[in-house]
Design brief:
Length: 515
């Protein structure tokens, strides 16, 4: 099936049709106006000629002679030729002609209206006489006493008026042609621009495109933000509004998203913190025919996934630690059995009891200090994970925390990421490597303090450490401490980094307990 006309072509055809119709109407009006002007000019001319002859003393004198035609016929014809009129008739009050363009009609009665002229007035009419249709006037000729002694009729045929009008038509036609040419050129330029902007699509194609476009934008599960080349939000779908917390009106991008767009670099699955959400953003520029149209940003909600990933990492670390402890326990069990076989029963019991007391002491300390089961499990798991890494992780004996003060998930986020950051800080440093954790309630706040003996953190890097994307690891995402900052700010708390005595860093977080 042949492709239907594009919007640009339809608009061009419609504009040409409308302009042609308007120009035709205008031209018709101009011709009618010119015809009326020509007729008015003819009326004015015949009135002037008739009045001039009627007031001529020679005409009045000739009318009083025995043969008025002898004088009036040559005078009237000379005047007719001089003025360009078609006929001049001088007649008696009883309509008898004394002059005429056709000599054979002299002496015959005048055909036309003369009643008003006989009463001293003037007659102006369009009448069909011996020469055809004409515009004529009839005026009275008076003697010195004011009596009407004759009549003068002057006329111009409509054919002569039309011939005069025809002389004006070339100018009207030229104006019409110029108007059509200008209008068609303007329509063509407009349609050409519209064709470029619509890419030659027809109305049905654009309607389908809009319907599909609107359906896809509302149905897609990813947030979509389109920013034009000027940095203004050109499009944002429902999911993006939900993820960014934007209303139904014009959307203002959060600073984190605006900074990501302004970086002018391709971005794939980069984490972004927006309020309580962890979003994964991908950014790329859009181009058409080599021109940069703007930037497209896709957003996915990874809040739950990040939380589950953190919990999975903790479980994985705990599993690895348990596997290592199982291996160590097997070694110790073989040692104890061998000592029993050698008859050194007392030493075997002493060795087994010491290992159990050490493990139970840590468990009792954590469980006794922390009522929140998830946080207690996290501390035990991190302790085992630290032991696997060769790091001594201790829980400060001053730790005391009720399980109902803050939600367990937020505590796990803050404590877990602070401990992970400390473990990474001491990794690769000489032994002994130590990490200490303090979690307690004091003065209506939850105090979380993690101390390590790693290389520490320079004061000028503290702000960067809690910013998304900053990491000391080459492959890190820099999301851990950013999540700590996010949770802390949500509770209106504070965080800071100080140098530890003897080297290392002390990361302290204070979060007010909600009423």
């Amino acid at each position: 099936m042949a492709r239907r006309w594009s919007i640009a072509r339809q608009l061009f055809a419609l504009q040409v049709l409308v302009v042609t119709l308007l120009v035709a109407i205008g031209t018709t009006g101009a011709v009618l106006l010119a015809h009326r002007d020509a007729r008015d000019a003819a009326v004015a001319e015949v009135i002037a000629v008739a009045e001039s002859m009627a007031h001529s003393p020679s005409v009045a004198a000739a009318l009083r002679t025995a043969d008025p035609s002898a004088t009036l016929q040559p005078y009237a014809e000379a005047t007719r030729r001089a003025t360009g009129t078609d006929f001049i008739v001088v007649m008696a009050p009883d309509r008898t002609r004394y002059s005429h363009r056709t000599p054979e009609l002299i002496g015959q009665p005048f055909a036309g209206t003369v009643d008003e002229a006989l009463r001293g007035g003037r007659v102006v009419e369009q009448f069909r006489g011996s020469l055809g249709d004409s515009v004529r006037t009839v005026v009275p000729v008076r003697d010195p006493d004011g009596a009407v002694i004759g009549l003068v009729s002057v006329g111009i045929t409509t054919d002569a008026i039309n011939r005069e009008l025809l002389t004006r038509l070339p100018a009207v036609g030229a104006a019409t042609g110029i108007a059509l040419l200008l209008a068609a050129s303007g329509s063509w330029l407009l349609s050409r621009r519209l064709r470029r902007q619509t890419h030659g699509l027809g109305p049905a194609e654009m309607t389908r495109m809009y319907e599909y476009y609107d359906a896809v934008l509302h149905a897609v599960r990813e947030g979509l933000v389109v920013v034009d080349s000027g940095g203004r939000v050109a499009l944002i779908n429902d999911e993006a509004r939900r993820l960014l917390g934007a209303g139904d009106g014009p959307a203002d991008l959060p600073p984190e998203v605006a900074a990501l767009i302004a970086e002018q670099r391709p971005t794939v699955d980069e984490p972004v913190l927006i309020g309580d959400r962890v979003l994964v953003a991908s950014r790329r520029e859009t181009r058409f025919d080599g021109r940069i149209l703007g930037t497209v940003l896709t957003l996915r909600d990874h809040t739950e996934l990040r939380a589950l990933t953190g919990e999975l990492d903790s479980v994985r670390g705990l599993t690895e630690a348990l596997r290592a402890q199982a291996h160590e326990a097997a070694n110790r069990l073989h040692t104890v059995l061998t000592m029993v076989e050698l008859g050194r029963t007392d030493e075997a019991i002493q060795l087994a009891t010491a290992e159990l007391e050490l493990a139970q002491q840590l468990t009792d300390q954590v469980v006794g200090a922390v009522d929140e089961p998830a946080l207690a499990a996290l501390l035990l798991g991190k302790s085992a994970q630290a032991g696997e890494r060769g790091v001594e992780l201790t829980v400060d004996e001053r730790s005391r925390l009720s399980g109902s003060l803050l939600p367990g998930r937020d505590l796990i986020t803050v404590v877990g990421n602070l401990i992970d950051n400390a473990l990474e800080a001491v990794a690769g440093t000489p032994s002994p490597r130590r990490v200490a954790v303090l979690v307690r309630e004091e003065d209506g706040e939850v105090l979380i303090r993690v101390t390590d003996n790693g290389p520490g953190l320079r004061p000028d890097r503290v702000a960067d450490a809690f910013r998304r994307g900053w990491s000391t690891k080459s492959g890190g995402h820099g999301i851990g401490l950013a999540l700590v900052r996010q949770v802390t700010q949500r509770y209106g708390g504070t965080y800071d980094v100080q140098d530890a005595p003897g080297g290392g860093a002390v990361l302290t977080v204070r979060m007010p307990v909600p009423a």
